# Entry
Amino acid sequence: MFEAATLTSTDKPGLYRELAVQLEALLRGERDPVANAANMSALLFHSLPDLNWAGFYLMRDGMLVLGPFQGKPACVRIPVGRGVCGAAVLRRESVLVEDVHAFPGHIACDAASRSELVVPLLRDGAVLGVIDLDSPRPARFTPEDQAGIEALARIYLAACAG
# Structure
């Protein structure tokens, strides 16, 4: 049985290094992408401060479809190019938004969300989905968070490969 350890780092790079060790242990030996997304969502939601949503949207028939998550119920389908998640797919790069109210076309699944970080899951040039983090705090996410979540996304993709 996996039990998350208390994170002890006081700086973000250290925190994400600790989370990477935990995520690798949590996903070790499991290749199912849905099971791994569910566990990763729970780990992020319960380990990172000031989140009100952490989860996955997965590409299905050219559209993002809600996957495993932690938080309030969410939008089920997001077209590519729409909202922060759709923008990350279209751009094929992470999108960090300090104030979602200033982002053109933002999709408000939870009115309490103020900032958002979306990291695309890329394999062999294809977007498999995105990791989406929301916070009720403006400017919650920094470039250090982006780098940390991108590293965790690589761990997720490696665990699901094969």
